[in-house]
């Protein structure tokens, strides 16, 4: 029997699971750092530092201290702070361009071949904390064949809050158990399971670079586990 | 010079402009009417009657008398009332199937060839009162190549309220003048223009059947006017 019986829609974590954010951000950061005479700053460290500000920024929204604010805005605030930390005085156009690096991330090599197969038998959509425009621009540039762009913005809640998962199932007209989250992150899957979704772990051992120490294995008995989107398609009989 | 200079995204009315709702609803209504021994009811008249309940149902939401409710729910309430009018006692499965007829509408013949060309040079998305699932299922079935699924549900406002147009531009990260509404309905275009969007009229002379008497011509000087999506692509240099 194929994996995930009864699951009609697959929703995907994006940063790390669908695309390689660290390589993409480092690539574009390198351009801006060089332009401003800061070739001494390691672009991968810059990418990591930008990403470290991600959870605290969303936590302001999750806690209710701040109304729902889309990720492009949070990314920009975090970029401005990071540039200030490095005493880099990039102009507005450079900041806008670098902030859109999150729209220009490349998929892992197995992402698109796997999604094309999965789409033939299931409804597929992102369930990302990225905003609609970010995810749609990424898909348009990279040819990611989503059926719809879902996630924090239409749900108006950031993962791992239960509303992010439950409202996504509601938008899809499905019971939570008819939706599976596909993610490379055990924490995201744990929150999805708590909300009643099915779970699929896909290992991404170099999301954080060659010495990654987190999410190097499935930490619970997820409903299915795969090493790539193509293996996931195999397991689902797609 | 090509039409709509400065416009980066095209957003589309869907029912009537992208798809032929009347033919599609009549097709599936015919099946249910026959099954329940009501071959005497004209399926096109049934489609028209269902559609006549559309604006009053949304008006409950627009007026604030009712919280935002997605179109699948409004369609279902209207269907139940219409079946009661005809004393048809269809079971739950038949009602669910017929309500999803709105997810199974076919595009006009020029829709997909035109959209493929337009997508190559612009961001394209629906700006419909249909909910996300309805529009996404329609796109998946018919191969409509949207870049994202926008409209009343992510904007949480029904056209022609200004918020439906303005929040869509905001989601796209664009000024209203950088977004054009493409529609076969003068009223929709008038509301979009009032909100600051650019406007493109596409004539759909048989949306309401062979004796259509409304929207048979452009009633204002819209920014561009075309007889099909392919002609629109020509005018935009796509």
Automatic annotation (TrEMBL), chains A, B:
Swiss-Prot/TrEMBL keywords: Hydrolase
Gene3D superfamilies: 1.10.150.750, HAD superfamily/HAD-like
Pfam families for the chain: Hydrolase
Signal sequence, renumbered to the chain: none
InterPro entries, per the entry: 2-HAD, HAD-like_sf, HAD-SF_hydro_IA, HAD_sf, S-2-haloacid_dehalogenase
Keyword set includes Transmembrane: no
Highest taxon of source: Bacteria
NCBIfam families according to UniProt: HAD-SF-IA-v2, HAD_type_II
Name this protein carries in UniProt: Dehalogenase
């Amino acid at each position: 029997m194929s994996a995930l019986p009864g699951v009609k829609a697959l929703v995907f974590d994006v940063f790390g699971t669908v695309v390689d954010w660290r390589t993409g951000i480092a690539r574009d950061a390198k351009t801006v750092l060089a332009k401003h005479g800061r070739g001494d700053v390691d672009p991968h460290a810059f990418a990591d530092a930008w990403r470290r500000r991600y959870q605290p920024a969303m936590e302001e929204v999750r806690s209710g201290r701040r109304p729902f604010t889309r990720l492009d805005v949070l990314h920009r605030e975090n970029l401005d702070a990071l540039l200030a930390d490095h005493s880099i005085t990039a102009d507005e156009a450079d900041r806008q361009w670098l902030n859109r690096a999150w729209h220009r991330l490349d998929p892992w090599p197995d992402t698109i071949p796997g999604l094309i197969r999965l789409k033939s038998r299931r409804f597929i959509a992102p369930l990302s904390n990225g905003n609609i425009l970010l995810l749609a621009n990424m898909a348009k540039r990279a040819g990611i064949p989503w059926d719809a762009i879902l996630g924090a913005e239409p749900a108006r809640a950031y993962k791992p809050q239960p509303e992010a998962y439950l409202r996504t199932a509601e938008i899809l007209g499905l019971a939570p158990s008819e939706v599976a989250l596909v993610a490379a992150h055990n924490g995201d899957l744990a929150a999805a399971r708590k909300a009643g979704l099915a779970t699929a772990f896909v290992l991404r051992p170099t999301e954080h670079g060659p010495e990654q120490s987190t999410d190097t294995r499935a930490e619970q008995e997820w409903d299915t586990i795969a090493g790539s989107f193509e293996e996931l398609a195999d397991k689902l009989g797609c």
